[in-house]
Design brief:
Blueprint (H helix, E strand, L loop, with lengths): L6 E3 L6 E5 L3 H13 L7 E2 L7 E4 L2 E5 L14 E2 L4 H14 L7 E9 L2 E9 L5 E2 H5 L5 H20 L2 E2 L8 E4 L2 E4 L6 E2 L9 H13 L8 H12 L3
Antiparallel strand pairs: 1-2, 2-7, 3-4, 4-5, 5-8, 6-8, 7-8, 9-11, 10-13, 11-12
Helix pairs in contact: 4-6
Length: 236
Amino acid sequence: MEIPAGFHRADESGLSCIVRDDVGDSLLPILVAAAHSWPPTGAEALQGGRGATVRLDRVVLRQYRRGGLVARFNRELYFGRTRRAEHELAITAVLQSRGVPVAAPLGSAVRLVGPAHRGWFASQYIDGAANLWLWVQGKRTNDERTLVLQATGQAIRTLRQAGGHHPDLNLQNILVHGSQVSLIDFDRATLLETTSGSIPPELNRLARSARKLDPRQQHIGDADLALIRAAYTGGA
C-alpha cells in the first residue's frame, strides 16, 4: 500500500521505517532501539498481545509475534509480499482519516531477513485506557456500562461505514478511555469497496470472543452484547 498522507519513509540502521511527519525525529530512534533489542530499555510492559506490547512515554510499541502452533518454531518471522507493519499503518491511517475511533498511528519498522521480515508498529498512548475485557471486570455503574457498550457498537458501525473490515475484533482489541472507545490491531484488516447491510462479522467475532473469555457470563453477558448490537444498528 502507498505511504499514507502525513507520513514519510525514513530508513535507518537496516530498517525500513515509515513515520508520521510531526514525530519522525523522536520516533525513529525508538523504532531502531526496539528492533535492536526487545523490549527496548525503559519500556513498560502492557497487558495483552502475547507479551509483545510495551509503552515508552507517549508511544505504544508492538512487536509482531505469531500465535498458535506456528509460534513453537517461528515466533517473529513473516513471509509473503505484504509487510504486516506497513499494512497496519496504512489501514489505520486511512480509517482514522474517515472518522473511525482508533489509537492514532505513529509509524512502523520492518527488517528484512532473507525472504521473510520482522515488524514493529507504533501508536499513540491513550491515558487511562484499558481493553474492554479488563474494563468490564472492574466495578462499573449501570450508566457507565451502558455508555461504553453503546460507544462500542457505534464505533463498529463507523468502522463499517468507512469501508473497514476487522476480522480479529475482540474484547482485547477495543480500548476504553472514559466513556469512549478506540479500536486497535488492524494488521489483518482490509478496506472494502462496499459493505453489506446485514449484521457484520465483527459483531459475531466480538460475541465469540466474549463467550471464550467469559463462558459463564460473569462479566459480559448476552444483554451486554445485545446492547452493543442495538447501538450498531442505531437503536441506542
